[in-house]
Amino acid sequence: MNTKLLKGYFVWSIPFLFLACNSGPGTAKLLPPDPKNSEWYVQKEKDEDDSDNKLGLYALRFYPDGNYTLCADLLFEQGKWAFDAQKKLLVLDPEKGDTTIKERYLIDQSQPKGKAQFSFYSAYPIDKANPDELVKVLAVTNSSTNDPFKKDMHGWRNRPTQQENDVQLKQRVVAYLQFLLAFYQHAKDNNLENPGGTWYPQPIKFYSNKVSMAYENELGDWYTCFFSKEDAVKGYQLISGALMKAKIEGEDDVSRNIHCVEQLLVAVHK
């Protein structure tokens, strides 16, 4: 087991993406050209069983200041990380209320052809033969200055304690759209053709040939970002009204999504 102090951030994508900033796991030959700004990808083979990724992991980013963001299927978790030299593993400590898991433990292992394997556990002492989650990662260079995973990009998720006025509702929707724009700009900067996942609310749906609003039964996580369902519907209507005026143009899916979100931001701001 080749366990090292992980510095930086990591991201999974569909098929699974892993981003790492600063030094990553493995030997020196595994390090990307710029170890302070790099990505770790997991390419799932068609014949591989995906049952070891029970959470449906999409993204996990570590920051040098000790914060992290974990994104998975219907899960958005933030907290503190630290390397435990005695236990020889990385400890993730979620913020209260983010999850029922008290701590997560991460161990890395070098693999052939410049790859690495990451095993996650929810209890200590760990059973190395039975990780809760298991993903394989490969390093490439990250060329994006956009960061859709940082904490201040997700203030719109914080449910207010009282009814919001129209100005506050608009500000919440604008903050969501700014996150969405950063998400797709990050994908374009890194040549990611199919960014996605179910770790964030999607009142607006992007497809290869169209953009449409989500159905009512797809808005459960959107409702949790507002004081009431009534407010959430108003926020939804701000986006749907803006979408009616948008022109969907671009040379590829990600470019079209960026162009669309830019128009939504302009329309909602008015």
Automatic annotation (TrEMBL):
Which UniProt keywords are listed?
Answer: Signal
Q: What is the superkingdom listed in this entry's lineage?
A: Bacteria
Annotated signal sequence is: 1-28
Q: What is this protein called?
A: Uncharacterized protein
